[in-house]
Specification:
Layout (H helix, E strand, L loop, with lengths): L1 H33 L3 H13 L1 H10 L4 H39 L1 H19 L12 H20 L2 H32 L4 H40 L4 H11 L8 H13 L3 H15 L2 H4 L1 H4 L8 H15 L3 H27 L1
Amino acid sequence: MVIIGGQAMNRKNSEFYFLLLFLAGVLVVTLFIFKPFLLALILALVFTTVFAPVHKKLLDQTGQNKGLSALLSTILVVIIFVVPLSYLGTQIFRESTSLYHTLGSNNGLANISSSVENLAHNLAKYVPIPDDFSFNAGQYLKQGLDWLIQNIGSIFSNAIKIVAGGLLFIVALYYLFKDGLKLKNDVMAFSPLENIYDERIFKKLTLTVDSVVKGSLIVAVIQGILTSVGFIIFGVPNPALWGSLTVIAALIPSVGTALILTPAILFLFFSGNVLPAVGLLAWGVLAVGLVDNFLGPRLIEKGVHLHPFIILLSVLGGISLFGPIGFLLGPLVISLLSSLLDVYSTIQKEQQA
């Protein structure tokens, strides 16, 4: 009987390990199937989490009509985010293309080189420069143009994929609003952890998304928008392009938006536009600089807080790994890692107690 029982146990173990191996293989194949759509699905999950309180209110107002409330929530996200971002992306594309063609033409390169040299000459009136100092603006601009030629193609070559991903994002957003709770329950049922631990993980991840999206990233985006507005008002060229770079610069601790605003102010000042330079300086201090101090603490209520330097690294690394969408996914991945490690540590302590 012992031998028969042992054989039965070994057989069950073999079946179990075979099932795990087979399941792992199917999961890998499934991951490759979903890989082209993974970014759109992750974004849909993020926006579903951020707009969960709004969706809940719409659900109550529609008499628990899941389909209608999901449709209204999806339309709201599209109006608030997708439409403005689409317009901004188009504007950045136009300005980048215009700058590319300007740098690509001989006349444009000569004009820009002449402007830079005039700017350096005006700067010499205020800053002592040695007589033997030389600055070949054309050479440096030519090097920058070569880099731009090598990289601009990859930046705009995926326009069709971006449009297709946007449509998939909207569809996924609707179904996540509609069936998100059922999906959460299915994941909890599949998880080997107790429900209390699953709930804790989901709560931690929700707080993570709220902290990152509603905190640092939204403040950076607002500062980028205000910078673009200031550039439009005071006559700095390519405001949308520089505003988008300001969003990334705003994540750098201590320095932030000054990395973009300071050169623009100096450009206006040494170009003879003193009043616009003073106006842009005032705009940068009053409108852009104070956003982080007043709006940031109100957007971040509680949750997982990351050091600004870690957020900067995650943004740059995310862009390098995922492309432009990595601006959002990078901080989220690092935040999720922090959350999961925290939950794992808590579970370990509770099990040892």
